[in-house]
Amino acid sequence: MNSSSFLARSSSRISTITLQLRAKFITSRSFSILSNSRFLGEVRIPKFPIIKRVQPTQFRRVQTIVIGGTKERVHERSDYPLDKIHELFKNDTISIIGYGPQGRGQSLNAKDNKLNVILGLREGGRSWKEAIQDGWVPGKDLFTIEEALKKGTIVGNLLSDAAQKELWPQFVPHLTKGKTLYFSHGFSIVYKDQTHVIPPADIDVFMVAPKGSGKTVRSHFLEGRGINSSYAVFQDISGKAEERAIALGIAIGSGYIYETTFQREVFSDLVGERGVLMGAIQGLFLAQFEVLRARGHSPSEAFNETVEEATQSLYPLIGQNGMDWMYSNCSTTAQRGALDWYKPFRDATKPVFEKLYTSVADGDETRRVLEKNSSPNYREELDVELKELSESEMWTAGKVVRKLRPERK
Ligand SMILES: NC(=O)c1ccc[n+]([C@@H]2O[C@H](COP(=O)([O-])OP(=O)(O)OC[C@H]3O[C@@H](n4cnc5c(N)ncnc54)[C@H](OP(=O)(O)O)[C@@H]3O)[C@@H](O)[C@H]2O)c1
Prior knowledge:
Layout: H1 3-22, E1 30-34, E2 37-40, E3 43-46, E4 50-54, E5 63-67, E6 70-76, H2 82-88, E7 94-97, H3 101-112, E8 117-120, H4 126-133, E9 142-143, H5 145-151, E10 154-157, H6 161-171, E11 180-183, H7 187-190, H8 192-195, E12 204-210, H9 214-222, E13 227-235, H10 241-251, E14 254-259, H11 262-274, H12 279-294, H13 299-321, H14 323-328, H15 332-361, H16 364-372, H17 378-390, H18 393-403
GO molecular function, one term: metal ion binding
GO cellular component, one term: mitochondrial matrix
GO biological process, one term: isoleucine biosynthetic process
């Protein structure tokens, strides 16, 4: 079988899987994929996924997906209608501490979902001003951190990860028996040797971590979509921590929510953002741009062939349809070339990913974040590096090219 027909075939199989997950009236379902897979740590990576069977073995509300022999639990928004969420949190005040991208997205979504949400922010700071612009009212639903900690029965610690360490001593006296503490990252808990964040033993502690920017948490919610998130329970004193974690995850804007642990979340997240989500993409773009420039191509040509076509055309298509679809729907010249070259790129970068993972697991990445982002001027210091980046030839070329983008009719 030639590669394109194989890819087209696996594409239709993947669509089948998606349909299985989205089917609303199937009260119990799971699917299994037989794969020629290999192990990488805990996760089986299927090389050639083939559906073995579709068999109803789970009852509704907890679906188990099995990919490459690995079982995972998934919950979805339709399992937690708003009246159920209201019932679960009817006696709660949800205090969101921090109003960065996550604090903003999560608190506004939960407020729009008619939960009792208040904010805790430092008075006069950037976030305080933004919150007022967004309609939060000092003394009504916008308070100092201290006051919000006092009032909250569920406390969302959505400060920057460095500030979570710095302000932890302020949290502790307010985390009294019966309260709940949640995070959107495993950072503070997993790297407790560095952060000293150790919750009192008599409260529920869980995590709800949206798999995307807080801006997307909000924009997807406003569009009526949900974002994928993961959840984990660290301490379950009430016996209800898991249900409340999932319900809160839905309330703050999740569509599908996957089970994880604090450690697996923070390791994969730190690798991801340093890797293909941000750092590796920037590195790959730059490497290709520099080679094209060194070989005599104009800045606009190098930019168009590197960043513009990727972000404006191919990546959105990959996002919508999958990589296999992309292969089947590009020229056969591109298909041949991409099939020949993805392995050398994988082989060249894999040692870098291995090094990155080790750096995350050893705590070197978090040490650097805590050290660098604890300085009082950390935002300004980051801004200096970002300014240098945006003034680099690749991105200045980008600014010119973007101005030339055809207008929408
Ligand atoms: N951003 C994402 O896409 C994303 C995705 C998933 C999970 N997460 C996790 O969600 C959590 C929040 O992240 P984020 O990106 O929304 O926030 P962030 O931008 O890293 O942090 C911003 C918040 O922290 C406050 N803050 C920083 N230093 C402070 C200090 N010394 N005292 C008081 N407040 C301070 C800021 O207040 P001021 O404005 O007053 O400085 C602001 O409200 C983190 O655990 C992060 O890892 C983030």
